[in-house]
Amino acid sequence: MAIWTSSSRTWMATRSRQSRSSQPRSKSPARDPLRRSMLRACAAVLLAAGVAVPFASTQPTGAPEHATRGEIALSRGNYFDAIEAFSSALRVNPNDTRALLGSAEAHYLLGEYDSARPTIDRALSLAPRNPTALNLSGRILIGLGDLTGALSAFERVLAIEPNNIEARLGRAELAVVQGRTSEALTTLVSSLRLNPEHRQTLLSLVLVAEYHGDIAAAEAYLELARTAHPDDVTVQLLAAEYFLRAGRIGDAIDAAAIAGSIDPDSTRALTLRATLQLTAGGDPEALAEAIALAERLIAADRSAAHAWFVRAAALRRSGAIDTAITSIRTVLRLDPGDEIYRIWAESFALAELGLEHPFRTELARIRRDEARSLVGQFRFERAATAYRRAVQLAPLDFEIRAAYADLLRQVNRPASYLQELRLLGNDGYRTARTDRAIEVFDRAIASSVARRWGIDQFATPRNRHRVAIYLVGRAIPERYPATEAALINHIERSFTFREGVDVVDTRAVGGFADALMQSRAQDVDFFILVDLFADARSFAISGSLHVGSTGAQIAPVGSIRTGPHRVADATESFVTRVLAELPFRATVIARRGRSVLLDRGSRDDLQVGDTLLVVDRTAITRAPDRGGFVFPADAVLAEATVSAVDELVAEATLAIRGGIDAVAIGDASVYEPADGTPAAVTELFPILYERLRLIRATSRLR
Fold this sequence. Notes:
6-stranded antiparallel barrel, Serine Threonine Protein Phosphatase 5, Tetratricopeptide repeat, 28 helices
């Protein structure tokens, strides 16, 4: 009788000491009621203990073969093929524990936690004390945000097997998700004592120590992992990625070369080697090597979008622009839904190609189609962002600009709509239809705040916060090499589409001290330190907002999203969080009696009825240790109650304080300072957790 123990995933064979040839022929279990009932009783006992029992009489032909095929696909990272194979096994036998566990793990590794949940629950109903199933359940529950349930699953494993390292690793990952990285470090160190050469524990310690800034410890754990597992491709590749993040390109190239010598056909090793040659700089030999490695990957699989992308990036740096366009077009055809490839292509087109180049028009029309889809979903703000990106790419495309103008009309921004129509006319796109629309909307806004005060609100200078964005660290390079600059530019443009901020500097920095020095040199009000993480399923921006003059941290401002719109969703969340932390300040730009005109409006979330303080412009300064302004009480000249708003300006009525009317043009207008500091909002999954999750995924690969 052969028994599959899903907790250890090893076959145990028990045989009679006597040879089968000496045994008298017995009845088949299926035909012997007594033996059949005994087997069922044994099966019930084993299942209660967490052991799946595929008896020949209860395991229909074909299920083991399908499950084995699924496990092979899973070990190679072919998760969709694995799901198909496990599904075939479950159609034959719905109670196949191997197939249930394999299917749940494949969905988990794809980030499809909702699909993984019912499958792992089914496995646990058959084997409730199975440590493998419980550990996987805990990780799936982390993905679903059920942290209490995840902890319970890991604790159940440890109650059965107190030294189960997988459960201990799960608790460490859970601590990371909850922001308790010191606890995670302690848990990992205690796990290492149980098995000093455990690969996943060592690699996890590398990442957690690196996150804590303990570089000596991180490199010590990395050296232990490389010494204990010198022939392990995953260890050498993680070492190469670690060295790449540290800027040690030579060491990274050496580690990747070792990985390539261990497995010359490893796609991951070839990809990383190509990435490193691309990252090494503008050296012609390195770029030629990157192109050669990319073409080797393409020869093995012409549908490998990442290889075509490496080729495109290297060709661009080599100055072969037309050939680079051909390669990036291939990337977008093979993987049209990947936002990061498209963002890089847009950055490339804006930097390298003329306004009327056909490739810019192609990219603009992709954005236009995206905007149309978003309008159909009533997601108007996101649609406006997509249209603005399309207009940046193809500013001479009348159809795109007219569609953007019409969206402004739909979202009740008549002044912006009128402005866009006039710009179209000035650029030679005047039609009878646009003339009629201009006439109608010109009358419609005749009584607006801007018209009554006789100003052009779009030409009026506005007092914006000067902000710098500084990149520390690197995006995960394997799939998206050399995309950091394009992604930072994408984030920068997202700020320019909002009000109140001028991004005056974006660059990579060596760390906080370098960022503070650059911030002071650029005389910025605030700077944001950001680190990026990107893989095929998620995109994360880990950041912190600081006062420009002192470097004092105001708040963490990270964001992570998964799914097909992960970059757009994460960027929108990130920008919104930053803007929420920046202090509001308007400026008095005109005055008529007790009425003043402010340079903020509805697009700054100013509303009728809001009450502001008017402060002497010479007495208000930025707080050196937090976001906000400081001023003495006697610098408050009046209260201003907003009585009417336009898109970019507002009218307010003054209530003078102190009996003396000293309000003048140029004075500041701010909200009453709030008591206390609101708690910072943090994301559920920090970048560190995503990197730990990748270790688990790659540890399965052969």
